[in-house]
């Protein structure tokens, strides 16, 4: 079979690009620990409170023990519901001690939202009907922005809050 020289180069370019992409993907998945959130658990988006974790009083940060925390979140356009504080105000900032293991459990009551804590490995898609969950160890101190990275409507850019990891 005769291949034109340029056609050969084009094939080499295409196959090399494919191999490079697979290496990048493999590096992210196996070395950097990036992986899709669990999608095993389903939930009725019109009645998320049927799951105890997403009842109003269980939202936000809960301490399990010295170094284990759970953060339950109900996302909706254009807000992350992290529960209320003692004064009844909506929580918009959570504080986690350095090195703690945190289980994030997130659901949406309307459209698809993102759940990305910029600068960490936490980056989930939150789809109606599913509980997106991910456990991570917060090892870097600082204030991180938790934001929505799936376009969800006119208020998309206002959908963010902050997560602080302290020493
Ligand atoms: Cu929620 Cu974009």
From TrEMBL:
What does the UniProt function comment say about this protein?
A: Subunits I and II form the functional core of the enzyme complex. Electrons originating in cytochrome c are transferred via heme a and Cu(A) to the binuclear center formed by heme a3 and Cu(B).
* SUPFAM superfamilies given in the database record: Cupredoxins
InterPro entries xref list? Ba3_CcO_II_C (IPR034214), CcO_II-like_C (IPR002429), Copper_CuA (IPR001505), Cupredoxin (IPR008972), NosZ/Cyto_c_oxidase_sub2 (IPR051403)
Q: Which GO terms describe its molecular function?
A: copper ion binding; cytochrome-c oxidase activity; oxidoreductase activity
**What is the phylogenetic placement of the source species in the record?**
Bacteria, Bacillati, Bacillota, Bacilli, Bacillales
In this chain the Cytochrome oxidase subunit II copper A binding domain maps to 66-167
Which PANTHER family does the entry mention? CYTOCHROME C OXIDASE SUBUNIT II, NITROUS-OXIDE REDUCTASE
Q: Which Gene3D superfamilies match?
A: Cupredoxins - blue copper proteins
Pfam families membership: COX2
By what name is this protein known? Answer: Cytochrome aa3 subunit 2
Q: Which reaction does it catalyse?
A: 4 Fe(II)-[cytochrome c] + O2 + 8 H(+)(in) = 4 Fe(III)-[cytochrome c] + 2 H2O + 4 H(+)(out)
Give the organism the record lists: Oceanobacillus iheyensis (strain DSM 14371 / CIP 107618 / JCM 11309 / KCTC 3954 / HTE831)
Give the transmembrane ranges.
Answer: 9-32
List localization entries: Cell envelope
Pull one GO CC term from this UniProt entry. cell envelope
Has UniProt tagged this entry with the keyword Membrane?
A: yes
Fetch the PROSITE patterns from UniProt.
Answer: COX2, COX2_CUA
**Keywords in UniProt for this one?**
Copper, Membrane, Metal-binding, Oxidoreductase, Transmembrane, Transmembrane helix
């Amino acid at each position: 079979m005769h291949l034109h020289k340029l056609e050969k180069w084009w094939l080499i370019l295409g196959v090399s690009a494919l191999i490079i992409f697979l290496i990048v993907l493999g590096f992210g998945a196996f070395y950097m620990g990036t992986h899709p959130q669990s999608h095993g658990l389903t939930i009725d988006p019109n009645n998320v409170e049927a799951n105890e974790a997403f009842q109003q009083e269980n939202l936000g940060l809960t301490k399990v023990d010295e170094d284990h925390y759970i953060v339950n979140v109900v996302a909706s356009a254009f807000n992350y519901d992290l529960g209320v504080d003692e004064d009844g105000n909506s929580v918009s900032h959570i504080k986690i001690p350095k090195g703690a293991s945190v289980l994030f459990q997130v659901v949406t009551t309307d459209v698809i939202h993102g759940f990305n804590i910029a600068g960490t490995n936490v980056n989930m898609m939150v789809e109606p009907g599913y509980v997106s969950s991910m456990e991570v160890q917060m090892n870097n101190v600082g204030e991180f922005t938790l934001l929505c990275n799936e376009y969800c409507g006119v208020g998309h850019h206002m959908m963010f809050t902050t997560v602080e990891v302290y020493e």
